[in-house]
Write a structure and sequence with these properties.
20% strand; four-stranded mixed beta sheet; 163 residues
Length: 163
């Protein structure tokens, strides 16, 4: 619908002129200045990186568990407490900076697998997951193999005293 009256066309041209002048003064940028992605800062907690790394490490074939025997024993007790949840950060320590992170992992491997192959696969999987999800550069992933799970060994879960 077009209004052909003289007053309406004058108002429309004045509005267009004002908008064009405003755009010219601002250089065509949006209000607030700059790209919205650069307004503010994002920080990532150590625990977030530890969870991502722990889950990525557990996805690798040949990794039986994470953490030392003692931490797995305490974790098994904690897992049995009502309302308790399985700790995905067990065996993982992260140091997170502004743009980089370094990780230490402690794993238990299954008997019969190549430890060097499992360590390489864990390292690759952890680096890929952490860098993709956080945008941080992973500078190192140190892996300590603390045990080998033998096929005839029982799981290291303490017996419950409750019946």
């Amino acid at each position: 619908m077009t209004d052909m009256t003289e007053g309406a066309s004058t108002r429309a041209s004045e509005t267009e002129k004002t908008l064009q002048e405003g755009s010219a003064r601002k250089g065509g940028t949006r209000r607030g200045g700059g790209d919205p992605a650069t307004r503010g800062r994002t920080t990532i907690a150590d625990g977030v990186v530890e969870k991502i790394a722990g889950l990525a490490a557990r996805d690798v074939d040949g990794v039986h568990a994470m953490g030392s025997g003692l931490s797995r024993t305490f974790g098994a007790v904690r897992d049995r407490v009502p309302g308790g949840s399985k700790s995905v950060t067990r065996g993982v320590k992260a140091e997170v900076g502004e743009v980089q992170t370094a990780l230490d992992l402690e794993i238990v491997v299954d008997y019969g697998v190549s430890i060097s192959d499992v360590a390489r696969d864990v390292r690759e999987n952890v680096i890929a997951a952490v860098e993709r999800m956080t945008g941080l550069e992973v500078v190192e992933v140190n892996i300590a193999v603390s045990d080998v799970k033998l096929p005839d060994e029982e799981e290291e879960e303490p017996e419950s005293r409750l019946q």
